[in-house]
Structure formats: structure tokens, C-alpha cells
Specification:
12 strands, binds ligand PBG
Length: 333
């Protein structure tokens, strides 16, 4: 649909911009706390809050502090919290067995939140990188990231997360066939209500740097992820990935990173009309936060504008490290 416009001066497009009231009446998109998913980092210990140097204002939290954070998020009306573990290097192995340990950090945090803050949805991450000695999302055999063996391990990891009570499972690994394999295994195990939010169009991006610091994978990572994550030059391929994942049983699909890929968000939403999410990743957070702290931009306004853009691009929700700040701002606090 193309809006039609009369010639000047019948049409003066500034008329509706003249006051807060007319601007509010003609605003096309809204950002609300319902749209927010808050990614958080979990670490071992008691009462630990450890700031991540490349992400000012973002912390690694011990499980007790994660529960506190979840309670605060629920009070603010945030829909979901998404857990990422910082795994002790001594637990990283070539077989990544910690990934499906029922007592691993992610599963312990999930159980604690579900028990104490039942109102917030818990999302978890499926991928081997936090547990892998070489920092890759899959098993490495003779220098190659092997697909099918990795999918078998990811299924075990997803099942352990569903057992722990995860509401939404987010496979971020970019292996082929994982959504179908996880969906079959979840159905078979009776976990028929667990949602799969597929990181369907996940690009091999330089914007993940601070996240890899946060989960302790930066030092471990050998090489890059371009044999499984997507080439930033492609967008038709993103549509194929999304279609494939929807056909395999994904309930929700994601584009990641966010702001540099708004065109992909729009194409995905227009093509499939499925619940579509963007991940405003760690590097995007760091840029906005860092420039704001330096006084180079108005950090708060840039934060709100960046999130509104995702809604305008057709996203139903956003994973963002700004979630609590945004929620407070939306409430006028
Ligand atoms: C890895 C994973 C990454 C992120 C989420 N899950 C990094 C990567 O692919 O190396 C990045 C999130 C962010 O940068 O905020 N499974």
C-alpha cells in the first residue's frame, strides 16, 4: 500500500506534527514492556554482582541475584528473561557434557526463577559455546564444526532445559536440522508446551564481541563462525532459514544482530507473518551505552529510538540489555 498525498498546500505534512497530541494520534508504532526480553548473565557463587567491562551497566549475577533481577523485571512488567551462563573454565570440555548437566548454572537458575518468580517467562540458550574448550557452538573435528553430531548434543541440552522448566528455548547454534530434532524430542518427552524461538537468521557478526567477554568465550574461540553463521551480505538466504525453521516447528523466529539488519526483520515479517524478534546484541548495546557515557549522544534517547525502530521494522519483540531501563522509562520513572 502506498499512501496518497494531495499537492501542496492542500497537503502540508507538517500539520500533524505540530503538537504532542497530533503526534500521538498519528504515531504508527508503539513500544511497550510486553515487547521486551531481557538477556542476563549467570555465574557461580553467592551474592555476586560483577560488571562486564565492555558492557557498562550489565552484570554477571549469581543465581540468588538472578532471582532478584527476575523479580524486579517481573515487577516492571517485562515479559521474559533470557539466561546465558558464564561457565567456569574448569567445566569446559571437548564433549561439552556440562551443557546437558541437570545441575548446570542455566538449569539451576531456571528452577530458582520458576519457583520464586513464576510470572516471568524463562528463555534459555541452546548452543555449545559456553561449555566448549574451543568456544565454538558445535563440536570441532579435524578443524571442522560438525553438524549432525552437534545436533544430537543440542537435543540433550534442550531436553535438560525443558526438564528444568524453561518456557522458551532459544537455539542460537545455527546447525542445520536442529529445530526439527528438538521439536520431535520435546514432543516425545511430553514437553508439548515449550516454545522454540529459533535464532533463524543469525549472522557471523563483529557485534558479538562484548557478549563473548561476558560468557568467557572470547579467549577460548579459535577462528570465526562463518561456516555456520550467515554472511552479512545475504538476505534471501535469511528467508530460506526462517521458512525452514517454521516448517520444522519453530514457534518464533529471530534476526540477529538487530539494528544493522532491520531490512531482514521487515522481509521476514512481511513474508511469513510469524512472531518475529530481533536481538539487539552486545556490541549494539556497547556502542549506544559507550557513546552515551562519553556525552557524545543522548544515550537514553538513542536507546528508546533504537528500540522503536525494531517495532517499525515489523518485530513483535526485542531481546535487549536495556530492557529494565526501557521499562522504567516507559513508566515515566
Ligand atoms: C552463541 C551466542 C552469541 C550470542 C548469543 N548466543 C555469540 C556468538 O554467536 O558468538 C551473542 C549475543 C550478543 O552479542 O549479545 N551461541
Amino acid at each position: 500500500m502506498r499512501p496518497t498525498t494531495a499537492p501542496f498546500p492542500a497537503a502540508r505534512l507538517r500539520r500533524v506534527r505540530q503538537s504532542p497530541a497530533t503526534r500521538a494520534l498519528t504515531r504508527e508504532t508503539q513500544l511497550s514492556v510486553d515487547d521486551l526480553i531481557w538477556p542476563v548473565f549467570v555465574r557461580d557463587g553467592d551474592n555476586v554482582l560483577e560488571e562486564i567491562p565492555s558492557m557498562p551497566g550489565v552484570f554477571r549475577r549469581s543465581v540468588d541475584r538472578i532471582v532478584e533481577a527476575a523479580a524486579e523485571a517481573a515487577d516492571l512488567g517485562i515479559s521474559a528473561i533470557c539466561l546465558f551462563p558464564y561457565t567456569d573454565p574448569s567445566l569446559k570440555t571437548a564433549d561439552c557434557a556440562e551443557a546437558w548437566n541437570p545441575e548446570n548454572l542455566s538449569n539451576r537458575a531456571t528452577r530458582a526463577i520458576k519457583a520464586q518468580v513464576p510470572g516471568i517467562a524463562v528463555m534459555t540458550d541452546v548452543a555449545l559455546d559456553p561449555y566448549n574448550i574451543n568456544g565454538h557452538d558445535g563440536f570441532v573435528v579435524d578443524g571442522e564444526i560438525v553438524n549432525d553430531e552437534t545436533v544430537a548434543a543440542l537435543v540433550k541440552q534442550a531436553l535438560s532445559q525443558a526438564e528444568a522448566g524453561a518456557d522458551i528455548i532459544g537455539p542460537s547454534d545455527m546447525m542445520d536440522g536442529r529445530i526439527g530434532a528438538m521439536r520431535d524430542a520435546l514432543e516425545e518427552a511430553g514437553h508439548t508446551k515449550v516454545c522454540l524461538m529459533s535464532y533463524s537468521a543469525k549472522y557471523a557478526s563483529a557485534f558479538y564481541g562484548p557478549f563473548r567477554d561476558a560468557v568467557g568465550a572470547s579467549g577460548a574461540l579459535k577462528g570465526d563462525k562463518s561456516t555456520y553463521q550467515m554472511d552479512p551480505a545475504n538476505s534471501d538466504e535469511a528467508l530460506r532459514c526462517v521458512e525452514r525453521d517454521l516448517m520444522e516447528g519453530a514457534d518464533m523466529v529471530m534476526v540477529k544482530p538487530g539494528m544493522p539488519y532491520l531490512d531482514v526483520c521487515r522481509r521476514v515479517k512481511d513474508t511469513f507473518g510469524a512472531p518475529t524478534y530481533a536481538y539487539q546484541v552486545s556490541g549494539e548495546y556497547a556502542m549506544i551505552k559507550g557513546a552515551g557515557l562519553n556525552g557524545w549522544i543522548d544515550g537514553e534517547k538513542a536507546m528508546m529510538e533504537s528500540l522503536m525502530c525494531f517495532k517499525r521494522a515489523g518485530c513483535d519483540g526485542i531481546l535487549t540489555y536495556f530492557a529494565p531501563d526501557v521499562a522504567r522509562r516507559l513508566r515515566g520513572q
